Amino acid sequence: MDAQTCIKKLGYVGILTFATVDEHGHPQVRSISAVHYEPDAIYFYTARGKNFCRQLLADGHVQIHALTKFKEMIRLSAVALPVPDDEQEHWKNVIFEEQPYLTNVYPGDTRSIGIIFCIREAQIEYFNLGVHPIERYYYTMGDVKPEVKGFEITDACIQCGTCEANCPQGCIEEGEPYHIQPEHCLHCGNCFENCPAEAIIRLE
Ligand code: SF4
Ligand code: SF4
């Protein structure tokens, strides 16, 4: 698995959920299939009148989510920017050729109401619930820092074994201190809540 494979899997899913935040700070999600995938970028089309477009132009931050039929979750945290004016027509044509239904939605010149946005930098989270133990990996696209989440065991650990016994994925190893295998961790917090020494910290 790597970032490019995650992007390919998004293409196989085909319909992605895009999340933004509105002017009141409330979450807004919508499903979008007017998307073109390059190995190092994602292009998508939306109309200027849509709140989605206004929210992107105001801020650009977007989260994209997809779930494959194999229970693999792929999430991108990114900033979407409009492509330069002299590239708009090219990418519109690419997306409309790949998604013929769009010519029914925006026939003829009405497609000019749309804008092409591009994502070149993103944090990518891959989370596979279809295997045991579960798998979780982080990747990046472009020049961004990888995401850090979950829990970590500190030197305050007294090696009592409570966390190991309570971990639903069996992903805590004995040691001094005990150790969480981050690639198999659910982030459920059961170890964190039950540690008698408060030796487990949440990573931010
Ligand atoms: S429950 Fe806490 S003290 Fe006990 S082994 Fe786990 S991390 Fe260490
Ligand atoms: S957060 Fe849950 S899955 Fe992860 S190590 Fe702790 S108990 Fe195990």
What's this model, at a glance?
The chain is α+β, with helices and mostly antiparallel strands. The chain is 23% helix and 34% strand.
Give an overview in words:
The chain is of the alpha+beta class and 204 residues long. The protein folds into 2 domains: 3-141, Roll (Pnp Oxidase, Chain A); 151-202, Alpha-Beta Plaits (2-Layer Sandwich). The protein is built from 6 helices and 14 strands. The chain has helices at 3-13, 51-58, 85-98, 102-105, 162-166, 190-194, and strands spanning 16-21, 27-32, 35-38, 41-47, 61-67, 72-79, 81-82, 114-119, 122-128, 135-141, 151-153, 172-173, 179-180, 200-202. The strands form 4 sheets. A 6-stranded antiparallel beta sheet has the order 2-1-5-6-9-10, covered by helices on one side. It starts with a helix and ends with a strand. The model has no long low-confidence stretch (mean pLDDT 96). The site of one iron/sulfur cluster has 14 residues, from helix 5. One iron/sulfur cluster binds next to helix 6.
